[in-house]
Amino acid sequence: MKKKLIVSAMLLSALFSAKAQDFNTYFDDASLRLDYIFAGNADSQSIYLKDVSRTSSWAGRRTNLSKLLLKGNGQITVTDDSTGTVIYTNSFSTLFQEWQSTEEATRVNKAFDNCWLIPAPKRKAKVTVSITNMHNRSVTTMSHTIDPSDILIRPIKDNGIPRREIMHGGPSGKCIDIAIVAEGYTADEQEKFFEEAKRTAEAIFSHEPFASRKADFNVIAVASPSGDSGPCIPREGKWKQSAVRSHYDTFYTDRYLMTSEMTRVADILGDTPYEHVIVLVNSPTYGGGGIYNQITLSTTRHATFRQVLVHEFGHAFGGLGDEYYYDDQYTTMYPAGVEPWEPNLTTLTDFASKWQDMLPEGTTIPTKPDGKDVTTKVGVYEGGGYQSKGVYRPVQECRMKINEVEDFCPVCTRAILRTIDFYTGK
Questions:
Q1: Which of 93, 163, 259, 298 could form a disulfide with 288, with the two C-beta atoms 3.0–4.6 Å apart?
Q2: Paired residues of 258 in beta bridges
Q3: What span, in angstroms and rounded, lies between the C-alpha atoms of 271 and 155?
């Protein structure tokens, strides 16, 4: 038995060593920050490279480098220039693409900035950014070359903004790094922010499956000072000087609290090691937002702070879709015949790729709600992704559907666990 354990340990060590060698073959332990502008309207879109800069470390995954866990609404892919080998890829969603589905986008052109980090290539590499439409088809692609010797790649230095470690699970290279950014906190409210950042981490890691995997995460708080205290609320004529220029009424929706200025967020983070960003807004008013592999926003002093935060982080971290629905809105967000990329929604076009394997024997499709075991009984319940017809969710009630439910359903839980495993290589 002892001999078997030793052999198993040796095999595991060899596996991790091989993964590390793969990363070290192509990349330095540093990040390139790529700034882009996405511009267009409801019918057209363009992508422009704005700037390239470099940080002193890479906090992202070092395994599964050439794989995508979820397709998202866009992808960024890095290939070795000499061989064409894919050496890194990641997926994302953007506020720009959300805006394209609004009425405003039918009558005006707009531009949104976006930032992503990639591991810094040792040799020349080609970066390709592509975005997809609601039919999961690529509609715009832009490519450019990265030359590590380029003298115009700007080094990012420590910007002096106060930071504090909130939670430490282990080395950055082996853990998932979350950065919490202050919004609407003045310099005099720094300690208040750090306390509320601590509450934020406690809220997330009191929920399963995050609680069981707490050791796989690091959390750091970045106390970016705002000129004014509190949030911007356009419908009330309240505009503040705030760190990341977030505001309520995004897309004229009262509770949608978001920022369109991702480069400001990245400037604040500077050389901080991070993979996922949570912006805490100093406000007692209900609101928030989450965009996959880009950003989470939440207020800190509303009665439903915990529920909203965890829901929005479900979007941004786990790629989970909204399971609530309306009778008369967003009827084309998930077209018939197209399988959503979100792991907790299906149109039954490719249900085998979703939670079909989790259905109890004899489950009818669609499944009729019966009011029993509403948070745990897995089925195929019609209504989700803002649509009352044609889109299905896994359970009757979930954290991704209503605030009154504390927990993620079994399907969402599995999706989050898969995300954690993907990032950590477990």
A1: 298
A2: 247
A3: 9
Query: CA geometry: angle at 193 spanning 234 and 31, to 5°?
Result: 90
Q: What Å distances lie between residue 266 and 32, 183, 200, 204, CA to CA?
A: 12, 13, 20, 23
- 3-class state of residue 357 by DSSP: helix
Task: Compute the distance between CA of residue 295 and CA of residue 31 in angstroms, rounded to an integer.
Answer: 18
pTM: 0.94
Residues 369-417: pLDDT tens digits?
999 999 999 999 999 999 999 999 999 999 999 999 989 999 999 999 9
The burial of 133, by beta-carbon neighbours within 10 Å (0-12 exposed, 13-18 middle, 19 or more buried), is given as middle
Please list, in sequence order, all residues whose beta carbon lies within 8 angstroms of the beta carbon of residue 225, skipping any fewer than 6 positions away: 161, 182, 185, 186, 187, 190, 243
Contact 246, 277 (CB under 8 A): no
Q: H or E stretch including 221?
A: strand 217-222
Quick one: tokens of 22?
Answer: 């793969």
Question: What is the full DSSP assignment across 298-311?
Answer: EESSSTTHHHHHHH
Which pair of structure tokens corresponds to residue 261? 């200025």
Nearest residue to 260 (alpha-carbon basis) of 247, 278, 242, 279:
247
All domains of the chain in start order, with CATH: 20-155 (2.60.40.3250), 163-319 (3.40.390.10)
d(CA 217, CA 406): 21
Which DSSP string corresponds to 248-299?
S-GGG-TTB-B-SBHHHHHHHHTT---SEEEEEE--SS--EEEETTTEEEEE
> Residue 232 and residue 246: Cα distance in Å, rounded?
7
Nearest residue to 271 via CA among 147, 354, 155: 155
Residue count of the chain, please give it.
426
Beta bridge partners of 221: 164, 180
CA atoms within 13 A on the CB side of 277: 28
Q: How far apart are CA 131 and CA 75, in angstroms?
A: 6
378 with 358: CB under 8 angstroms? yes
Q: Which residue has the tokens 């080395």?
A: 171
